[in-house]
Design brief:
Keywords: Oxidoreductase. By secondary structure, the chain is of the alpha/beta class. The chain is 31% helix and 24% strand.
């Protein structure tokens, strides 16, 4: 019998990412907690939800309470943390309701449509003495932790970073009604993928010492042949006093869109997704940048070269499972420990403010009600 603490989860939305999160989390022997799904809310009937639970191999599925109303689940459910994975256009509404019901929250990224909305969430979570966390799971993976805690302190000041997250989410055959092409649901490459690419820029520029970072440039090209100007190819330039970052995204290229979604994330790419150039070394992160298991380093500082030539080194940092569960342990540790905190608040707000500025400069607009506070 396990002596680990049990952390009970509720799922607000049976989304595609929830279909990855819970199978990765539940029954995970490497976890510090025994995570259990105890409640779900869905607009689908119970007869439709039960096959979803079985498909995801959710343990003890018959004991899970199924709510037809997400409000009712938040008000009456018995659980420790609610995982919110609805479209990000709904996050502000869902998070604020959860917090008002005294629920600790793990919300998918981007946490909200803009920084002002998340600031309100943070204020309410602080007032209620709850735990709130954006699900930027990449920050908590072994390779990312090794980069920030071990590598970056050794390589000298960062001078330049290139961060890209581009792959064909959208195919020519995709219905224009898809969530990925619906501006009313917050669709667009910047919000869907830019949060990842900007996170790598933030890790490079700010993990050792936070400096003032400005969005110097932002431009965008829309998805071809799709009404509504859904942003696709985005270019953002960040600037600090002694460093710069170039961030790019696309949800139509490069690569084949003919294979299932998650196989597209396993494709081999010719160039690294992230390149961090410092005084002593260049650090490269291969595709996919959301789930790195390898870090490539080329050393060129005078103390690291061999006969004056660069020295290459590769660090392997394997992930158990898909890797989304690492972040779950972080928030569970806080909640089960009786703490009250906003995990990663500064980082989340920086990324949201950069995206706000990038949207403004590039003319990326959404219906006003999505951005309202």
């Amino acid at each position: 019998m396990s002596d680990r603490k049990v952390c009970r989860w509720a799922a607000l939305s049976l989304s595609n990412i929830a279909s990855v999160f819970f199978p990765d989390l539940l029954g995970r022997e490497q976890s510090s907690f025994e995570h259990k799904l105890v409640a779900v809310s869905s607009t689908k009937s119970q007869d439709a939800v039960k096959p979803w639970l079985n498909t995801q191999s959710v343990p003890n599925a018959e004991s899970i309470t199924i709510f037809s109303s997400w409000e009712q689940m938040l008000e009456k459910g018995d659980f420790d943390i609610v995982y919110i994975s609805s479209p990000h256009s709904l996050h502000f509404q869902h998070v604020m309701k959860a917090l008002s019901c005294n629920r600790s929250v793990l919300v998918e990224k981007p946490a909200t449509m803009n920084a002002a909305q998340y600031e309100h969430c943070i204020d309410l979570a602080t007032e209620k003495k709850l735990v709130l966390m954006e699900a930027m799971w990449t920050r908590y993976l072994p390779a990312t932790q090794f980069l920030t805690n071990t590598l970056l302190p050794k390589v000298g000041p960062v001078r330049r970073v290139f961060a890209d997250f581009s792959f064909p989410i959208v195919s020519p055959e995709m219905s224009h009604d898809s969530r990925f092409l619906d501006k009313g649901a917050g669709a667009g490459s910047l919000l869907d993928q830019g949060c990842y690419a900007l996170t790598w820029a933030d890790l490079a520029l700010n993990s050792q010492a936070v400096g003032e970072t400005k969005v110097l440039h932002s431009s965008s090209m829309s998805v071809p042949g799709v009404p509504g100007e859904v942003d696709d190819i985005n270019t953002i330039i960040l600037g600090q006093a002694s460093a710069t970052g170039i961030v790019t995204t696309s949800m139509t290229l490069p690569g084949s869109s003919q294979v299932p979604f998650y196989k597209r994330l396993q494709a081999k790419k010719q160039a690294p997704s992230v390149r961090i150039e410092t005084e002593k070394a260049t650090i490269a992160i291969p595709f996919p940048p959301i789930r790195p298991e390898e870090i490539q380093v080329t050393w060129y500082g005078s103390a690291e070269t061999k006969d004056g030539l660069e020295v290459d080194e590769v660090f392997k940092k394997p992930i158990d499972g898909w890797g989304i569960w690492y972040q779950a342990d972080v928030i569970a540790s806080s909640v089960m420990g009786g703490h009250s905190e906003i995990i990663g608040a500064d980082e989340s707000l920086r990324i949201l403010r950069w995206m706000d500025a990038a949207r403004s400069l590039a003319g990326i607009r959404y219906p006003k009600e999505l951005d309202s506070v």
